[in-house]
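queue> pop job 88
queue> type: inverse folding (structure -> sequence)
queue> payload:
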């Protein structure tokens, strides 16, 4: 019931992650999205095979993948206006799963009011009956409604935030934030 051994080179990153190779010791992870100010947002996970064909879309309306190893959670929080996550058992997911794209969407508004969007990748581990998380990667996006991106945000109701890719030959995964 202790935290799994973490490689020495694994550290918490607080910067954009263009292609972050996840250590093979990471088996169960959570990708969490939070924001201090947000329109009515929904987190979606689009699952693709290695040919780019969409296999399924997970969201609040369909929170569990067919293989039962990707799960959407709406986490309530006093600290954030918005807090949703996806948990994944990387070594148990359907072998056809090659990539997962994480998309935030607003059905009622554009994204111009979105502030302090944060993506967090955490390692999950069991201690007794508790499921705990250790940060592996945290990135706070520049405010989408500020500066040059404001014009785009006024027109946009969806944003691809991050992607997770399977490295089939090595049996590892790569995480990437989209700026």
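queue> result:
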């Amino acid at each position: 019931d202790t935290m799994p051994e973490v490689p020495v080179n694994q550290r918490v990153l607080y910067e954009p992650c263009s292609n972050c190779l996840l250590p093979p010791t990471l088996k169960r992870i959570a990708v969490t999205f939070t924001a201090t100010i947000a329109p009515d947002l929904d987190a979606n996970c689009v699952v693709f095979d290695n040919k780019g064909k969409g296999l399924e879309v997970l969201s609040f309306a369909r929170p569990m993948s067919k293989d039962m190893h990707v799960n959407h959670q709406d986490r309530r929080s006093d600290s954030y206006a918005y807090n949703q996550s996806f948990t994944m058992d990387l070594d148990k997911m359907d072998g056809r799963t090659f990539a997962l794209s994480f998309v935030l969407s607003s059905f009622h508004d554009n994204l111009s009011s979105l502030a302090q969007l944060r993506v967090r990748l955490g390692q999950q581990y069991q201690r007794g009956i508790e499921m705990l998380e250790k940060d592996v990667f945290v990135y706070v996006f520049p405010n989408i409604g500020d500066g040059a991106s404001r014009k785009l945000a006024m027109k946009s109701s969806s944003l691809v935030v991050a992607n997770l890719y399977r490295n089939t030959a090595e049996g590892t995964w790569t995480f990437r934030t989209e700026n």
